[in-house]
Amino acid sequence: MTRPGRALLITGTSTDVGKTIVTAALACVAGESASGVAVCKPAQTGVEPGEPGDLATVAHLAGVVDVVECARYPEPLAPETAAMRAGLAPLDLWTVVGAVTDLVSTHRLTLVEGAGGVLVRLAPDLTALDVADAVGAEAVVVVQAGLGALNHAELTVEALRARGIRPAGLVIGSWPRDPDLAMRCNRVDLPRLTGVPVVGVIPEGVGELEPDQFRAAAPTWFDPDFVADLSSRSAPDNIAAVQPIEGVHA
């Protein structure tokens, strides 16, 4: 029996911290070819049917072909609220589990991009913590650079650990050319206070690069040891217990 691949949750300390660009960058560096990497977006908000969402950005920048969006709601709100206001069904955990499990079975690495932070409601009784727990994923936490980063990062890491989800690393989602004092201090203090290493620093504005430029530069934004681990490790043992669920794919 072929060992399944690995699932990795890409979550943030808040909204607009750079999760989509980090997801695209990780997809670039995770392997020799995009065919080894897939991306799942459980809930996309703020876009109408047929409009490009976050997965379109990831696919454009990283060249990832296999992307799956489980639910979409038009207003730019938390998924639970957006679904309720649109009169649409809320996202179901097993829809996400089924989608991720199928991707994990055929790809070495499946990136699962969350919505906002770990406790943002994807549905009335569903958060990114539940998704990561259900599919046996570790988590990469995307953090802001400036004031507030330390508190938000510590709270997020604490929430992950309380659920038994390992934080695999912190990534600063947007690092300016001229960082201020708080940013420079945070870069030192984040690993000290959370106990989680900063494994990546994404330069501000790289989402505007041409895809070939983005793919060429992406490896320079991450710690080489983290990249080697990301590229070589398979799933933790508990992922094997997750079985595909028929009839739940979006």
From TrEMBL:
EC number: 6.3.3.3
SUPFAM superfamilies assigned to the protein according to its UniProt record, in alphabetical order: P-loop containing nucleoside triphosphate hydrolases
Cofactor: Mg(2+)
Location relative to the cell: Cytoplasm
Binding site for ATP: 16-21, 54, 113-116, 173-174, 204
Entry binding sites for Mg(2+): 20, 54, 113
Binding annotation for substrate: 45
Residues of the active site: 41
UniProt catalytic activity: (7R,8S)-7,8-diammoniononanoate + CO2 + ATP = (4R,5S)-dethiobiotin + ADP + phosphate + 3 H(+)
Pathway(s) the chain acts in: Cofactor biosynthesis; biotin biosynthesis; biotin from 7,8-diaminononanoate: step 1/2
InterPro entries assigned to the protein according to its UniProt record, in alphabetical order: DTB_synth_BioD (IPR004472), P-loop_NTPase (IPR027417)
Domain of life: Bacteria
Signal peptide: none
Main location: cytoplasm
UniProt key word Cytoplasm: yes
Keyword ATP-binding appears in the UniProt entry: yes
Pfam families, alphabetized: AAA_26
Keyword field: ATP-binding, Biotin biosynthesis, Cytoplasm, Ligase, Magnesium, Metal-binding, Nucleotide-binding
NCBIfam families linked: bioD (TIGR00347)
Function according to Swiss-Prot or TrEMBL: Catalyzes a mechanistically unusual reaction, the ATP-dependent insertion of CO2 between the N7 and N8 nitrogen atoms of 7,8-diaminopelargonic acid (DAPA, also called 7,8-diammoniononanoate) to form a ureido ring.
Similarity field: Belongs to the dethiobiotin synthetase family.
Subunit structure: Homodimer.
Record protein name field: ATP-dependent dethiobiotin synthetase BioD
Species name: Gordonia jacobaea
Lineage: Bacteria, Bacillati, Actinomycetota, Actinomycetes, Mycobacteriales
Gene: bioD
